[in-house]
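Sequence and structure are kept together here, with a separate record for every protein. An example record follows, reproduced without changes.
>
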Amino acid sequence: GHIVAMTGDGVNDVLALKESDCAITVKSGSDVARNVSQLILLNDDFNSLPKVVREGRQIINNVERSASLLLVKTLYTMMLIVYSIISFQKYFFIPIQLTFITAFTIGAPSFILALEPNNELVKGNFLFKIFSKSLPTAITVVFNIVMVSIFSKLFDLPYEVQSTICVLLTTITGLYNLFKICYPLNIYRGILFFTMLIGFILCLYSIPEFFNIERMDSVIGILTFTLTINAIYIYKLINYFVTVIFNKFDSTVEIEGNIYDIKKVYKFKKNNV
């Protein structure tokens, strides 16, 4: 059940080399060994293989984490475009606001995470794993914006206020997703996450006009806080069901939470409304 590599340089190694998933030999090996191998080490040194394995693990694992961040924006953008067309509403963001969201939740984090040393074993299906991590966040973002849209119609909120709340909720959800991807935090990932969080807060309070964001008032603050708390519960619910579904196709996808915890959360909410 594992991907197996075999190293060898002689005729006696040929059968094992042929049976393996990846056959590796050296330049000075026998002709038969070189013919059946996928990799030939030109420096004639098998000691270089641990470095090759470490580099391969770093690339695959870091691309998986970066892709999980990047895919979130692609998924919720597609869903929001469809919702905007169906509901005959103006799109919820303008380009400079998307720059604000992307800078702190996707752009800088994905670039920095791609450079981190990572020697974890490569497991499971790449696509299943990145979709299981990105889909709950994307659906939560769409849920938030649908709720803001409903509130805007009920209370006749201006477009600028609606757009500001959408930007704040999307950024907060993105930062929560970044925290989950960075967890468990080490010095490297801890500095990354808190730098993004502090940068978000500083830009929000110092230059909101540059990003076409309304300054915080009681209406924006109360709505954002209420919907943020609700979004955490929604995320946990969606994340549980998404990981359960993907776990059926790929057992390496871990099921996060359980249905009993979800029931407790909603019972608590119901009793404390």
Observations:
- The chain has a mean pLDDT of 88.
- The beta strands are 5-7, 22-26, 39-41.
- The chain has nine helices and three strands.
